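Technical annex, item 7. During the second reporting period the consortium partners agreed on a shared format for inverse folding records so that results from different sites could be compared directly. Each record opens with the tokenized structure and is followed by the designed sequence. A conforming record, contributed by the partner at site C, is shown below for reference.
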């Protein structure tokens, strides 16, 4: 089965593009949501996180202690790298199991903001990058995420792979720049993947 990765910077429009593929009947693996699920349910990962970050990594009820973990990794690149080194391999395993279960789908999509940073691209047959210029993304994000400042958004962007690099590495680009219609771009790629 064809495995298509979909990435793009924050505010580029990955979610809306994925929703369009879902309307066309294509299963989409949401890496962020699944990473949260895996951190909560994968026994091996829970043991590894507890060993790495201490007994406070999980609450007495067994739930991931997100504020505690966030506090440890926020502005600490070494601790963040340690967290990612534990979580990303378990998410890759989860994706493979999920993809194998999608037996009636012609292909699957994996949405991941950190497609390259997490090495998830290595599991994919092709990569789509959703692109929007920075000023368009900033406007969308300030409207969508009212709790975030422009400085907050720029800090998130600075931690993601450069847009030029994403574009250079992409097999396909969907332009979500408020100038071009995205539905025809999605439909054209869908037809291409069906005939692959």
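Designed sequence (site C submission):
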């Amino acid at each position: 089965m064809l495995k298509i990765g979909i990435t793009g910077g924050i505010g580029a429009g990955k979610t809306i593009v994925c929703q369009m593929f879902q309307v066309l009947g294509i299963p989409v693996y949401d890496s962020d949501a699944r990473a949260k699920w895996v951190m909560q349910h994968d026994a091996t990962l829970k043991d590894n996180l507890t060993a790495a970050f201490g007994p406070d990594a999980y609450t007495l009820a067994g739930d991931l202690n997100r504020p505690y973990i966030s506090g440890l990794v926020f502005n600490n690149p070494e601790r963040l790298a340690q967290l990612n080194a534990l979580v990303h391999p378990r998410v890759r395993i989860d994706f493979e199991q999920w993809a194998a279960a999608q037996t009636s789908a012609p292909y699957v999509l994996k949405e991941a903001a950190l497609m390259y940073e997490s090495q998830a691209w290595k599991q994919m047959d092709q990569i789509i990058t959703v692109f929007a210029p920075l000023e368009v993304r900033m406007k969308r994000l300030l409207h969508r995420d009212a709790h975030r400042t422009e400085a907050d958004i720029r800090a998130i962007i600075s931690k993601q792979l450069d847009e030029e690099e994403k574009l250079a590495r992409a097999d396909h680009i969907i332009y979500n720049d408020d100038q071009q219609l995205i539905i025809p771009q999605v439909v054209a790629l869908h037809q291409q993947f069906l005939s692959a």
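The CA atoms of residues 141 and 166 lie 20 Å apart. Residues 77-101 form the longest helix (25 residues). All partners now use this format for quarterly exchanges.
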